[in-house]
Amino acid sequence: MLEQNPIVPMPSEPSLRQELGAFVWETIKIVVISLVIIFPIRYYLLQPFFVKGASMESTLEDGDYIFIDELSYQFNDPRRGDVVVFRYPLDQSQFFIKRVIGLPGETLEIKNNQVIIYNKIHPKGQVLPEPYLEPGQQTLGQMRIKLDDNEYFVLGDNRAKSSDSRRWGAVNRSLITGRAFIRLWPLNDGIRVPHISYPI
Question: How confident is the model at residue 188 (pLDDT cuts 50, 70, 90)?
């Protein structure tokens, strides 16, 4: 008598269509999750820019690739010394990058190659120390300007090559996009854009 072995059916293998469908669904999930994470970072937290021109040398060079922090200014105002990206007041389709020198409500004077700040702490004026300027830099011009409650006076660190508030006036707070804080390229330079703290 022959022994009868039970026959166990093999599990059916997924069809090619099922495998393809599962792959497509996983890909869609990855893309959606990536967009959910990247979109708010790109448009609300960080935004990349290429520096064009020599107006911020030697803090930032032509061709540097930077990220700007757009979130901080949702909660705090720009500070003196911040390197900011803003829409050019005379053509808001263009973005400029400069350093904040004068704050809202202050009076600022440029004379004798110096920047003088008049505010509540220094009603008689205080010369602004600017350690980031290269030796020999000159802040040319003769002017005195009173800033409104929502205006900032900005200058390039390379004063001889900079079109800034000396030429086209103060920048309204609403035009300031964010603060430059990370340099991604070139790699041999420091990654953070340094903030300057003034004793004024």
Answer: low
